[in-house]
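The instructor's notes for this session suggest beginning with a concrete chain rather than abstract definitions. Hand out the sequence below and ask the class to guess, before any prediction is shown, which regions might be ordered.
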Amino acid sequence: MSDELIRLTATEAVARLKRGEISPLELVEAAAARIAAVDGAVNALPTLCLDRARADARELMAGRRREAEGEPGWLAGLPVAIKDLADVAGVRTTYGSPIFRDHVPERSHPLVERIERKGGIVIGKSNTPEFGAGGNTFNEVFGRTLNPWNTALTCGGSTGGGAVALATGQVWLAHGSDHGGSLRGPATLCSVVGLRASPGRVTRGTSNNLFSPLSVQGPMARTIPDLALALDTMAGHDPLDPLTFDAPAQSFTQAVAQARGGLRVAFTANYGGRLPVDRETREICAREVRRFEAAGCTVTEDFPELGPVEDVFLALRSQHFVVDRELQIQAHRAQFKPDIIWNTEQGLAQSASRLAWAERERAALYRRFAAFFQRYDVLVTPGSATPAWDVALRARDVVDGVKLTNYIAGSALTSAITLTSCPAVAVPCGFDRFGRPVGLQIVAPARGEAAALAAAALFEQAIGLDRLLPIDPRAGEVPPE
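After discussion, reveal the predicted structure:
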């Protein structure tokens, strides 16, 4: 019974919960058994709160805490994982930092409160790099999280623990965050799905960067319908976040159920050579994107002009780090990893003129994308510049023969989209010759999450890779360069 339950999609599990065919407590126990069986091999969920989850399950089963029942995104007692960057009341929350090794918050993050109000049950905290900075999930508190398709490889970052927990069947939905690709990258490397929503779609609540659109919160899942369900759970206005707005009249679940073909799809493998992307990744993505044509869509190779996106992103990200980390580094410099110190000091050293230039360039990029979406419904790119790499490396250092200059340079495919404020969905599209997952990034106009999810649903139906999950962790070796 436990094995059967962990193989349900989130949508199926919620439907059975609503019909009373299974109970929240049964799902908590199924998840607990699966975690005990597989997490030792991958280190995805280093902090569990099983007794808290069991108590919450019993509350729901007794008819309490059901004020949101019937609302879009009602989870009816489904266990979920929360990234270890978001507070959960009474549960150890470290942010992946030794500074907060023993931190236990008294109150949950506003998004966690929203998820629990919608009938979600927090079962544990998923591993993340220190303060979510980095494309490889490791930290000094909990160590490394390993890719379940090949445990010699990285799962990506920074929502790596969530991606691995989903791929291995430890949870049905996972919460995460995305700045330069932290939901999309791990989803691609682990063959699950993840969504970077438009700024304001999902509350960030406690952030000091409340007026910056760079970092967002969002969902990760095994299937696109599950991803839409999770976004319905998370979306909506929050008085603690000035960028948030009301959830749409039509739920994202309905938008996915009504997905239709006939889309105008633009595809680029590397923006005409502008961004480095592994050759086999380019070939796989260019071949598999043609599956849209079976749904009556047109696929055209085209892309908007990017401009100096790498420099723009670094300038704005560095300013973001100054807001978040300047005072902490002053107090605890020895306990920060070098990447965070470097990124923060980049921000402290840049001039007001440099920031003004970056803002002008970001505005121009947004306008180019808005014009591009007058001609196309979605833009499709690879979800990652390479498949997963050696988990022992802090970051990729070379992509397609190009030497990378810093730890975020390998994420330009996703960070470029971050600058546009457009929503983007990561969806699996195949495997390379070494069995490493490869995926697509499907981008829609700003606030067009429904369009991005609907397009991703069409592709997922055509390719069927979601049916491979969940998997047991697989040992392997690092492929040769």
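Then share the key points. Residues 131 and 224 are 28 Å apart (CA to CA). The two ends are 43 Å apart (CA to CA).
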